[in-house]
Design goal:
With 184 residues, the chain is α/β, with parallel strands linked by helices. It has one domain: Alpha-Beta Plaits, CATH 3.30.70. The chain has 7 helices and 7 strands; from the N terminus they run H-E-E-E-H-E-H-E-E-H-H-H-H-E. The strands form 2 sheets. A 5-stranded mixed sheet has the order 1-4-6-5-7. A two-stranded antiparallel sheet has the order 2-3. Strand 2 and strand 3 form a beta hairpin. Helix 5 packs antiparallel against helix 6 and helix 6 packs antiparallel against helix 7. It is globular.
């Protein structure tokens, strides 16, 4: 899908049209598929917590500048050594769910130069996440700043750094290491 989108955007750029961007959220789980409607109007639909989570994860692609985000449930279903192509973004709690879900960015969906930049900084990014999740916000700001010194356009690192900087002076006493409440 992204290869085709890149081709379409190259043509759009040549004609002066704005580029199109998409984000994909992937979650694995049980669901119900069916047809709803009545005479004159029928439609297919899916219903499940898994679908709701996938939709919320898709909504986070813009926030974190990711093309594809997937949940830990999806990661567990992938074959082979996939961790080298994934970057953990963190734990999220979405509207309507008590348990947070861990989300990952699928780096192979990025353009090659973006994927290389993110792979190069993955250790510092993970160090920042550990600080963020443990409440060591100053350490997290430093780690995410280190990422940004090497890759100034890393949107996820910018978001995390800014969130941690805001928390440095807060009086948070019940920090649970959950990154964001999805509102979509």
């Amino acid at each position: 899908m992204f290869a085709e989108l890149d081709s379409v955007n190259a043509a759009r750029t040549r004609t002066g049209d704005p580029v199109i961007d998409i984000g994909i959220g992937v979650n694995f789980g049980r669901l119900i598929v069916g047809t709803v409607g009545g005479p004159g109007r029928m439609d297919g639909t899916v219903i499940a917590d898994a679908v709701n989570l996938a939709s919320r994860v898709e909504g986070l692609t813009k926030r974190y500048g990711a093309r594809v985000l997937l949940t830990d449930a999806t990661r567990g279903c992938l074959a082979g050594d996939v961790d080298e192509n994934l970057r953990r973004i963190g734990r999220i709690r979405v509207k309507g769910k008590e348990q947070p879900a861990t989300i990952y960015e699928a780096l192979q969906a990025d353009l090659p130069d973006r994927a290389r930049a993110k792979i190069t900084t993955i250790a510092a990014f993970e160090e920042g996440l550990r600080g963020y999740e443990s409440g060591a916000f100053r350490d997290a700001v430093k780690a995410f700043s280190d990422v940004l010194s090497q890759d100034p356009v890393d949107v996820a690192a910018q978001r995390h750094r800014d969130d941690c900087a805001a928390l440095v002076n807060s009086e948070t006493t019940d920090w649970a290491g959950v990154l964001v409440m999805a509102t979509k």
